[in-house]
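Hi L.,

You mentioned the student needs an example of a multi-chain input paired with its predicted structure. This one should do, with 719 residues in total across all chains.
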Amino acid sequence: MSSKMILDLFGMTFFYIVVGLTFMGLGRKITARLQRRVGPPWYQSFLDVFKCFSKTSISHNYIMDLGLIMALAGLIATAYFMPVAKGWTPAGSSSIVVILYLMTIGYLGMAMGVSASGNPNATIGISRALALMFGYEIPFAMIILAMISVLGSSSLSDIAMSQAGGIQNWNIIRFPLGFLAAEIAFQAMIGEKPYDHMIAPAEIASGPMVELGGKFLGIAFLLHAVQLFVETGLMVNLFLGGASTWYEFVGKQFVVYFTSMVINTVFARYRIEQGIKHLWVWAGSFAAIQLVLTRYFDIFSR
Amino acid sequence: MDEIYITNLEKERESMFEGLLNYFRKRSMWMLYYCTGCGAIELPPTMTSRFDMERFGIGPMATPRQADLLLITGYLSQKTLKRVIRSYEQMQEPKYLVGFGSCPINGGIYWDAYPVINHLEMYVPVDMTIAGCMPRPQAVLDGFQRLMDYIQQGKADGWRRYKENYEWYKRNQDELFARTEPVLKGWKDPFAHMPSLEEVMAEEERRKGGAR
Amino acid sequence: MTRDRLIELAKQFFPEDEVIPRKKPGELEIRTTRDRVVGVLTWLQNEAGFDHLMYISGVDWLEDGEIELVYHVYSYDHKLYCMVKIRVDRDYPWAHTIHKLWAHAQPYEQEIHEFFGVYFPGNPDLSHLILPPEWSEAPPLRKDFDPLEYSMKLYEPEWFKSTDTFASIANRLRGEEAERIIRSVLNESARLHGDAPEKDGEGEA
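Structure written out for the whole complex:
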């Protein structure tokens, strides 16, 4: 590992966090504007994170510390596998299977850390998050299976490169039902309404975050920021044709996030069993139809 | 006169760094509102479209661990005070406490009621009180902006006062919660031993006989 | 069943009790005693169709030395409202429990016990429901309990009343000037009120 690569990794970590936090601030602004409010400034999330790190914090045991660090590390590691521009990835390879597996480390670390705090609300939140994971992973995996079966490669940068040459080549055109399914699953993935069972402030007191105060909450914010980057990046690379420059990439990510925030603003929350049922019935059936059409009838592939 | 607790600590030296951190603290206040009384109804209009508290980075939070700002919205009964103290002690420093309306200041219209405490500042440090019965959203926003100024100047140091003067606050709290003597003349319950129906009727007979 | 018919029946069944129609149509009042009240309520519930116990309230008649218990019952079938009143001795107040008739009478009786000191032998739980567990005073809704005195003694102790402003100033200020300012405020206050707090302290001692 050369020193340049290490610098790259550190620089990219900083980039992910800055992009994620900016998105979070903009998301709050979007919600506010849709509700006819002025809303906080776009840099509000940075203020929140800095404030969180300036506070004291209480740790219940070392599992809690390690769990959150593991979650952050897992998500940052996932982000290294994300192709940013022209198929370039900090980690060198971009296998989509690796990405999907590494992403679970983030959730498991979070689950480990907050369950160690011993608060029942946190445990409920984590169990909800894992239950919801069953809901969205299956449709998402089916769509990815369809793409891999057409392209013959599981590399995310290959998928992104294969869409080069204009909007007509984007997977959003070639896999319309798959995009619909992925959009529904994406909403559940980033935990916005109608699938925000995991946080649910009025119900289970913000779920996993219930015992996190001060610096732990700051880490949770960073976690969410990196998670946003990874998941929007996944959508951009899978459906929106990847990007040739980093600012194009961030712009497309923002479009994905904007759509999600608008849906978030106008929807209410499902109950947990309704949410999973909805994901399986709608996202799952769209994805299955897409998979069958692609694999056996060869309609949407070129 | 010796009852007044005077803090004789040196004024803390405020560095540039502290000023910067205070800027973050004032621009991002997450509040936990303790909906004890009528004040809670003034908060939805303050938060939603018309007055939009989120402009200043003030937003609701779900648990004491995450919050910076504890709002006591209205009267506090003796039983609720115990929970308020618990929530306040669970919050992470720096933390601020805002008394909302006239009831936490001096009891308000409940000043002569037996379950409602009169002075909140006797039991927990209050950084800011917003007068009114109830304060309108404008007053609430004005109060929060003043609190922001205080935080920037380092004057909102209730959490520090609570640590330094803990004996004073604890003694006042114990006067309510760990009291051994009755406040007034006390009361002797004739049924304190929870008698059965037969015992009660026998006692009734005995009393009637005695009266005769 | 109309009200008149009900009054007629009630008079027939309970000749010793007073059955009075109230001013408002559809309302009546039965004045009975502690020994007969369970019978009256059982009759109202099972025979007369009063299926709903709305509340049990208490009234303290200080001059008479009695506590009045009022059972509010309502009939959804006949749209009739009936108050059954009994009076018990204030010094040794007790009444029969009716939580076997209406299960939700249990917390009502618990509350009456808490706030008026009326005892219900047989009620499964008469612990404190609303008052703090440290409560050691007379039941607070009795007329001889003085809430103002209680509030002043507990929540505004003498030392705090005289030093209200100063305590808050003392807590706000830091450094040596705090005491000087407090002293000056104290003197100012003494000048306004005509007597110095220090003198008060000496006088009491």
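You could point out the following to them. Chain A is about 70% helix and 0% strand. Residues 3-34 of chain A form the longest helix (32 residues).

Best wishes,
N.
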